[in-house]
Amino acid sequence: MSFRMNFVLQCFSSMSWAAMNWGLFKIIYRHTGEIGRGTGWHEDEFFIFLGTIWIINSLIQTFFMANAEEFSELIRTGNLDFALLKPIDTQFLISFPRINWAQVPNGLLGVALIIYSMINLHMDPNKDLYFAWFSIPAYLFFIGCGAIVMYSVMICLASTSIWFGRNQNLYNFWFYITNFYRYPMEIYQRGGNIGMALWCTFTFVIPILVVSNIPARILAQPLGTPWQSWEWQLAGFAIIASAWSLWASRWVFRKALLSYRSASS
After folding, report:
1. Are 259 and 162 in contact (CB under 8 A)?
2. Residue 213's CB: how many other CB atoms inside 10 A?
3. In this structure, which long-range contacts are made by residues 38-45, counting pairs with CB atoms below 8 Å and at least 24 apart in sequence?
4. Are 235 and 204 in contact (CB under 8 A)?
5. Local structure of 92: helix, strand or coil
6. What is the band of 244 on the pLDDT scale with cuts at 50, 70, 90?
């Protein structure tokens, strides 16, 4: 933020991306009533889903993305030596050295989009929106679980820098993987063999589909009824997946550090 114009331009750039993303789906909903026949993801329900994506992306890019990208530079220059010598956990130290405040507006836009869509759903007499007292706390909890999963994926990608020497394609890999979690999981479940393969991979192997789908369902309830048994099971799996992802990222990071050659060796 010390370079004010650069900070303003970064904020404008991230907000422009969100606006274009919103505009794209606004155009899509001019030609269809829902994404996936019978899924219940109508316009307002989907925009709750989209706002959830923006919030999670904002959290990751604000707190972790710049730090993960910097990790490869620490390895290349040998400055990781100084991090290893400090009396604090190394993974924690490299994960939180700085905050990119320019990505916060995306999250605020996500909150605004969710509030606007929720108001529209409550005012629509044709919608039977199920909303309980625990919906907001549960939503925030699963947003946290989603952030843990995405952070874990990012740390695993960043850790490869130790083996490869310099991983400048971290953001590209991140973008390719996260493209799959930007849509409701129903589109994969109804996409034939290829769609089911993607659904299984990004639900049970790299569990990024639960990141956005679970919290969005809590607020949107796309089918307009209390949760079905499989949705409760999926929510339970999301908790397990976040814990497993954090453990896996920890294991990969520590395994990678064993291969690190310090600048003095």
Report:
1. yes
2. 25
3. 39/184, 39/186, 39/187, 39/222, 40/222, 40/223, 40/224, 41/184, 41/186, 41/220, 41/222, 42/222, 44/117, 44/118, 44/120, 44/121, 44/124, 44/127, 44/220, 45/117, 45/121, 45/220, 45/221, 45/222
4. no
5. helix
6. very high
pLDDT of 171 above 70: no
Q: Is 129 helix (H, G, I), strand (E, B) or coil?
A: coil
CA 261 – CA 84 distance, rounded (Å): 12
**DSSP states of 174-211 as a string?**
HHHHHGGGGS-THHHHTSHHHHHHHHHIIIIIS--HHH
Integer Cα distance of 2 and 4 in angstroms = 6
Average pLDDT over residues 45-51: 90
Q: Can you spell out the DSSP letters for 222-235?
A: TTSSSPPHHHHHHH
